[in-house]
Design brief:
There is one protein chain. By secondary structure, the chain is mostly beta strands. It has no helices and 11 strands. The strands form 2 sheets. Strands 2, 4, 5, 6, 9, 10 and 11 form a 7-stranded mixed β-sheet that branches. Strands 1-3-8-7 form a 4-stranded antiparallel β-sheet, with no helix packed on it.
Amino acid sequence: QVQLVESGGRLVQAGGSLRLSCAASGRTFMNYAMGWFRQAPGKEREFVAAIAGIGWIGHTRIYADSVKGRFTISKDNAKNTLYLQMNNLKPEDTAVYYCAAGRTAEADTTPGQYNYWGQGTQVTVSS
């Protein structure tokens, strides 16, 4: 059974940093893209960042414009764990953050290209 479990979300002041983690189990995730999405109250789920699976020739990391230069996605294949380092957080980053595992190795911004999702972790940034 495939399982994704996020952790690391909490309340933080604007300008602060957080690192989210996503522990994956149930399949060999190194071969597939993995991504982070977020959803704020009253808004649709939006793409944050994605990282390609091993062997993908092309963009290996992609980011939403709103987080470029502030967020970094990475993964530890040995631990089957995905990370999102978030720096210089802003109140508009407040949302539930979801980890997702892709259908292919290609990093993609579209939620439909991900077939496994975690339960989410709340990030709240105070001004």
